[in-house]
Write a structure and sequence with these properties.
alpha+beta; four-stranded antiparallel β-sheet; three-stranded antiparallel β-sheet; 9 helices; 11 strands
Length: 378
């Protein structure tokens, strides 16, 4: 409605001589300063404030707000204010996704951006740098699993038809280049990542025997599960980027873990005994091979020496034979003397002259004389 500002008119509370709280006219009742009145306790006169606002609006919009030009000006101000509400800020860890009438039209980078205001346009700002964590297994159940065994997500079947309990953790984040896929293509990201993680882990574990899973293949399993999850999520166009897959606990089922540990201890003893045997074999076999090589070399040396000696003996005999054919008597005599020399060279000798007479036997004590000469020399 419009209020008249004529002198005889008055405001909505009656004539101008009376204020809205029943006071006197403006300027009375207790020394209100200036040209305006005051309410109880010296408060400004509300009617006066409204009248001043009308005067300023009339000066801005000729003819008042109810005129055609005034209505257009007010409508322009309202439209400008509505358009200004389309300004929004994207933080450094966010990506802005602009929608117009519910249709995705583009993304915006961190900083000050603009989109059509509500309800024409809306903006979704997912946090693309935040790392999310999804636990799979008993950890996800909040402790020891108390439900039915077949519903336990930790129990998985291995390639050799054993059962293993695996708890693991997946760390993931939104792919900044595919933030729109994350917002529009999946409804429950945590549940989707958990389902893909469990399916991928079951497939990877199902290809292996239980022994490598428990011992040496943990890092390999983590990498294979990570790659498989990423491939599946890319096929879903989920906009999820897998950062890390980490095995938290890999054990046999609790019902058979004691027996399995006994088997593991027996296998470790077997491996230890095998290693000790291999160590002993690696020490003994080279020694035996070295000894065999030494014996072979000695035999070859003896063979070479025997052959050489036999060859020399044959050559010497051939030379003696040639000499014997030339002078048989002299050769026989020389051979006899050489043989006697070799025989009596190291023996004690006593010479007896059997040709002597008169019963006297000439005696020459050669050994005693030889020993005496040796003692004198010492």
């Amino acid at each position: 409605m419009s209020w008249s500002n004529q002198s005889g008119g008055g405001g909505p509370w009656g004539p101008r001589k009376q204020g809205p709280w029943g006071g006197g006219p403006a300027g009375g009742n207790g020394g209100g300063g200036g040209g305006g009145g005051s309410g109880p306790g010296g408060a400004p006169d509300l009617e006066d404030l409204l009248r001043r606002g009308q005067d300023k609006l009339r000066n801005i919009v000729p003819g008042g707000p109810t005129s055609g030009r005034g209505f257009a000006a007010v409508a322009g101000l309202l439209i400008a204010g509505w358009l200004a509400t389309g300004i929004y800020v994207v933080r450094p860890d966010e990506i802005g996704l602009n929608l117009v009438f519910g249709r995705y039209v583009g993304s915006s980078q961190p900083g000050l951006n603009y989109n059509w205001p509500f309800p024409v346009g809306t903006v979704s700002k997912p946090r693309v740098t935040a790392v999310n964590t999804t636990d799979v297994g008993v950890v996800a159940q909040g402790g020891d699993f108390r439900g039915r065994p077949e519903n336990n997500p930790s129990l998985m079947l291995t390639g050799d038809e054993n059962i293993v309990s695996i708890d693991f953790q997946v760390q993931w984040q939104i792919n900044p280049a595919r933030a729109a896929d994350y917002v529009f293509n999946i409804q429950n990201p945590q549940a989707s990542v958990r389902a893909v993680a469990e399916a991928s882990m079951r497939e990877v574990v199902g290809r292996r025997n239980i022994q490598p899973i428990l011992t040496t293949d943990r890092s390999v399993i983590e990498q294979e599960v990570k790659q498989m999850m990423q491939d599946v999520l890319n096929g879903y166009r989920s906009g999820v980027e897998i950062r890390l897959v980490q095995l938290l606990k890999v054990d046999p089922p609790s019902q058979v873990i004691d027996a399995f540990r006994d088997v593991q201890a027996a296998r470790q003893d077997q491996d230890r005994a095998r290693n000790e045997a291999e160590t002993y074999a690696s020490r003994v076999v080279p020694e035996a091979r070295g000894e065999a090589a030494r014996i072979i070399q000695e035999a070859e040396a003896y063979r070479e020496r025997a052959v050489a000696e036999a060859t020399g003996q044959a050559s010497r005999f051939q030379q003696v034979y040639e000499t014997y054919k030339a002078a048989p008597d002299v050769t026989r005599e020389r051979m006899f003397l050489e043989t006697m020399e070799r025989v009596f060279n190291g023996a004690d000798k006593v010479l007896v002259d059997q040709s002597g007479g008169n019963g006297v036997v000439p005696y020459l004590p050669l050994p005693e004389m030889q020993r005496r000469s040796q003692g004198a020399a010492r």
